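look at this fold:
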Amino acid sequence: SKLTNLGHLEMTWRSRVRFHPLLVRILHKSRLRYYGKPEKKMDMPYQAYFEVADGSGMMSMVLWNSLCPEWYNSMKVGTVLLLDKYAIKSSYPFKTQPTPGDSQMKRFATIEINLNVRDPPTEISIIPEEMVKPEWGLPEVKYRFITRSELDDLPHNHSCDIIGLVTFVGRAERARKREHSEDFWLYRWAHAIDGTSDQPFILELFATSQPDVFEHIHPMTYLVCTQMRVVRDLTENPSSPVYLTTSNESQIFITGWHKGQPYTKDAKVKNFIQWTKSQSEADQIKKTVIGGYYPFPRPPDSFLKY
């Protein structure tokens, strides 16, 4: 059928009611958001953001309400979608923005694609990867992998992807989202090594919308975390170590989940796999730790400094 592209949509959306189908690839995926309130009677108050792209550039796409439980898990980073009967709206100005792996890609930030159950009921089709044709011009998923030796030179809030061998994973902890609030964030600390430094990656992993992965992070698993943010607390304590925390678009993968993921082609991922083949599993297991309370950043060693 006749297709349109994202660049053409941005130029013509105000003068149209009906749009031609779109063929796009998912480049980023946010966690699932629940926006239900006791006074509002909604069956499925869910929402999820995706960043999708074609040959003309990248745009946000929003999955609404009961489409979320139906489609969210099938829509992975790298998935190709054919969309029809979608809606176009001015974009929400306060949403988080992932850092694109391809810095040259054009971003259409004024509008976003909305996928709804009705008004209009969107038609979504997932195109299997083996049926995707090169002439469609869809961009590949690109990453920003770093090694542990590169981390110390990166600025605060820099976005990156990492792969490492887990040597420590702490228990799940909770932090209040706001003071006196009944809502909590669930998170855990982990350490991962990649052979490029004596120091591990220190990772603050918040529960994303992947409970099956979050609950099964354990020592000796190969851990991939995407769209992580560098945290440097230079004001409080300049000597405190740098760590990485998850963002709204972070995805986490462990051994058993890597097959078929787009990052398996990345050079730094291949280098890491080569390094793990040279390691003795018995030696690494001796250095691993699981559970317990992990105070971080560590308090000073005397009350005077405190």
